[in-house]
Task: inverse folding
């Protein structure tokens, strides 16, 4: 039985129509009953203990003046027990992390505070702050690009960089952008939309538009990076699995003084023509042992979209692995 002294905070803890409690019950297979200012938890002993830990942590969050969203419950369920070890290590750039609740790493932006929701996300955020060049590799829905843009906005607001440059290979359109209506910007903007979406999560729309007009934020196809040196900037290359080897080398060598560069991609979603090798795979192979370059690898366990997304990714991965085994068996039999 858990007792909470503030009934108003308890209402927020339970959520509208007890939606927070329902989320907890579904994830941990427990039942939570409210009796006055107390919550009784029924279920397997381990699940009861875990639910109590999560509820206490969420109540402490409310006591500190923060609200609760479904993402906060998900983060506590994934990471709660390990947050005591989440503090900064020796050599970490503590001043770049912004405010922290307890030992949680937070990214402060103009519109919201972003907190990593898995252990891998937390390691990735640390890497973005601590390394001039960082790679985030893994499946869709793991927050690779979203967190990178959040860190870029945070560093800009803190005066650590002068501008933000976001890029993607427009590989889906190949070299045939001419058939699309509009000017060059209108032709490529559909491929850049996920980057715009992330920015609007962290900055007011008017500020985003003004910063784009003033070239403080630049969103452009990878081909537009050729011949430039990017200094005092936070630079993100998204969907990097669709960059060719030459494009990847070109992009990585744009890194200038005072800049930080992030490369994100998914090995399983390469859209390059058959026979064209992915620059992301080559960079991972060639640069893996360079100490000042960070590689963070995500798995389906780090998916923070709808729970079905993780299940879908796992199903496709399992099928791909089974196909590889069948092909290897057929090759062995043929030999």
Result:
């Amino acid at each position: 039985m858990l007792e909470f002294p503030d009934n108003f905070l308890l209402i927020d803890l339970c959520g509208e129509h007890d939606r927070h409690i329902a989320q907890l019950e579904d994830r941990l297979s427990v039942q939570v009953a409210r009796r006055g200012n107390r919550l009784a938890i029924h279920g397997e002993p381990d699940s009861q203990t875990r639910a109590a830990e999560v509820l206490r942590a969420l109540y402490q969050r409310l006591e500190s003046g923060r609200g609760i969203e479904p993402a906060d419950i998900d983060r506590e369920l994934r990471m709660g027990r390990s947050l005591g070890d989440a503090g900064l290590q020796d050599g970490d750039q503590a001043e770049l992390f912004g405010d922290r609740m307890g030992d949680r790493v937070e990214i402060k932006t103009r519109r919201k505070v972003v907190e990593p929701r898995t252990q891998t996300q937390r390691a990735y955020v640390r890497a973005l702050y601590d390394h001039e060049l960082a790679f985030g590799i893994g499946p869709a829905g793991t927050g690779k690009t979203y967190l990178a843009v959040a860190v870029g906005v945070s560093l800009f607001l803190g005066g650590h960089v002068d501008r933000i440059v976001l890029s993607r290979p427009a590989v889906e359109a190949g070299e045939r952008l001419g058939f699309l209506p509009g000017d060059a910007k209108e032709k490529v903007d559909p491929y850049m939309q996920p980057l715009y979406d992330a920015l609007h999560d962290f900055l007011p729309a008017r500020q985003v538009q003004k910063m784009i007009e003033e070239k403080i934020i630049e969103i452009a196809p990878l081909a537009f990076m050729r011949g430039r040196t990017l200094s005092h900037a936070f630079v993100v290359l998204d969907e990097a699995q669709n960059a060719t080897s030459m494009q990847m080398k070109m992009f990585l060598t744009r890194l200038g003084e005072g800049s930080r560069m992030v490369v994100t991609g998914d090995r399983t979603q390469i859209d390059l023509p058959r026979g064209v090798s992915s620059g992301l795979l080559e960079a991972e192979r060639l640069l893996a042992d360079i100490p000042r370059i960070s590689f963070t690898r995500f798995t389906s366990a780090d998916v923070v979209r709808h729970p079905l997304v993780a299940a879908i990714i796992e199903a496709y991965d399992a099928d791909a692995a089974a196909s590889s085994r069948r092909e290897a068996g057929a090759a062995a039999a043929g030999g």
Remarks:
- The first helix runs from residue 7 to 14.
- Residues 83-102 have pLDDT under 50 and may be disordered.
- The longest strand covers residues 163-168.
